[in-house]
C-alpha cells in the first residue's frame, strides 16, 4: 500500500509538472506569436528588432487591481503619485487607461525576459531555430490541452454517464434516450468548438513556421 501510494504521488507530481510546463509554453508562445503578427520583418535583423521590448515596464511581479491586471511597478508608481497629491481625478483615469492600453506591451516585456531565459541568450542574439522551436512547443501545448478537454468531454458521453436513461429498455434504448437529451458527442457544440480551436491554432502555428522559413537570414 505504501509503495502504491508513493508511486501514485510521484505520478501526480509528474503530471502536475507536465501541465505546468505546457501552460508556460502556451502563454509564452501566445505572446511571441502575437508580437510577430503585429510586426513587419523580412530578415533576422528585422525580426530581432521587432521582438525588442518597447519599454522596461512589465518586469517583475504583476497584480490584479480590481480586474485590471498590471505590473506591480506601474501600480506602485500610480499610488505614490496619488499619495503625493500629484494627480487629479482626470489624471488618475488617464493613467489607468494607459495601463489598460499598454497591457500587451507590458506583457511582452515580461514574456521576453522569460523567453531569453529559455533561449539562453538575449533577444538580440536569438536564432530562427530557437524561435521555431518555441512556436512548435506552443502548437503542441495548445493541441495537447485541447485534446485533454476533448477527452474529458468524451467521458460525459460514455456508457457510465448514461445511467438513468432508458431505465425501462435495453442499452440501445438508453443510448437513444441519452442522445435525445444530451445530443451526440460529434454534434455537441462544445466538442465542435474544441475541434475548431485545435484546427485554428494548428493552422496559425504552421502558418507562422512557414513565414519564418521564407525569411532571409
What does this structure look like?
This protein is mainly alpha-helical. It has a domain at 17-38 and 126-217. The protein contains eight helices and two strands. A two-stranded antiparallel ribbon has the order 1-2. The longest helix is centred in the first third of the chain and has 36 residues, at 2-37. It is globular, with a radius of gyration of 24 Å. The mean pLDDT is 85.
Q: Which secondary-structure class do the elements indicate?
A: mainly alpha
Number of strands: 2
* Rounded mean pLDDT score: 85
Distance between the termini: 58 Å
Give a short synopsis of this structure.
The protein is mainly α and 217 residues long. The chain has helices at 2-37, 44-51, 72-83, 89-101, 103-119, 128-155, 171-182, 189-213; strands spanning 62-65, 68-71.
Amino acid at each position: 500500500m505504501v509503495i502504491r501510494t508513493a508511486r501514485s504521488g510521484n505520478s501526480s507530481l509528474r503530471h502536475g509538472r507536465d501541465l505546468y510546463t505546457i501552460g508556460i509554453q502556451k502563454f509564452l508562445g501566445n505572446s511571441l506569436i502575437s508580437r510577430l503578427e503585429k510586426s513587419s520583418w523580412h530578415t533576422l535583423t528585422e525580426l530581432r528588432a521587432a521582438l525588442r521590448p518597447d519599454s522596461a515596464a512589465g518586469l517583475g511581479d504583476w497584480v490584479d487591481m480590481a480586474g485590471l491586471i498590471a505590473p506591480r511597478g506601474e501600480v506602485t508608481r500610480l499610488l505614490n503619485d496619488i499619495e503625493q497629491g500629484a494627480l487629479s481625478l482626470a489624471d488618475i483615469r488617464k493613467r489607468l487607461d494607459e495601463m489598460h492600453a499598454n497591457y500587451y506591451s507590458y506583457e511582452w516585456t515580461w514574456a521576453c525576459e522569460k523567453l531569453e531565459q529559455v533561449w539562453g541568450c538575449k533577444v538580440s542574439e536569438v536564432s530562427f531555430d530557437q524561435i521555431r522551436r518555441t512556436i512548435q512547443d506552443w502548437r503542441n501545448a495548445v493541441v495537447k490541452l485541447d485534446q485533454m478537454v476533448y477527452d474529458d468531454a468524451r467521458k460525459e458521453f460514455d456508457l457510465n454517464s448514461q445511467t438513468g436513461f432508458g431505465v425501462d429498455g435495453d442499452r440501445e434504448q438508453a443510448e437513444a434516450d441519452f442522445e435525445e437529451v444530451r445530443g451526440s458527442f460529434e454534434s455537441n457544440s462544445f466538442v465542435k468548438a474544441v475541434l475548431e480551436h485545435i484546427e485554428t491554432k494548428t493552422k496559425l502555428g504552421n502558418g507562422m513556421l512557414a513565414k519564418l522559413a521564407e525569411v532571409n537570414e
